[in-house]
Amino acid sequence: MRLFSRSLILCALVFASAFSGVGCGGSSGLAKTEETSTDHLALRELGEAYRLYTISKKKAPKSLAELATVDAVGGNGIEAVRTGRAAIRMDATLPDTGEEPGKVPSSEVLAYETKTPQDGGYVLLLDRTIRKMTPDEFKAAKLAGVEASAAASKK
Length: 155
Fold this sequence. Notes:
By secondary structure, this protein is α+β, with helices and mostly antiparallel strands. It has one domain (34-153). 46% of the residues lie in helices and 14% in strands. The protein has seven helices and five strands. The chain has helices at residues 2-20, 38-57, 64-67, 71-82, 116-119, 135-140, 148-153; strands at 86-90, 109-113, 121-125, 130-133, 146-147. Strands 4-3-2-1-5 form a five-stranded antiparallel β-sheet. Helix 2 packs across helix 4. The longest helix is centred in the first third of the chain and has 20 residues, at 38-57.
């Protein structure tokens, strides 16, 4: 009986996803926008992981290993840093840990796509909002905290 119930639920989910445009490998019919790009979402997840770590530990993470303790929330973002697609600053105090990003504005860069300094790209600001910057804007921007490798060597 239990197997039948699970199978029925699985079938219902597959059926629902087929008609909602979401599913395994299928096209959703939606254009891939900047807000849904993989790197944009990875930066958003990094911001959420940073927020949750700060709330739970009452301090900013000092290393990627510390931040990875909330991997379940920021998995794609942490993986982007590990694989070199993104870089993150450590030991930076968030201006606000509320659920909604941007309530207390800050223009300091917390994380960014590694291509941003040369080619421009997305950055995660300290207020956990995301914006696109040109290489010149990035060079002029203030970076939050310390470089991740410098933070790790301070231990």
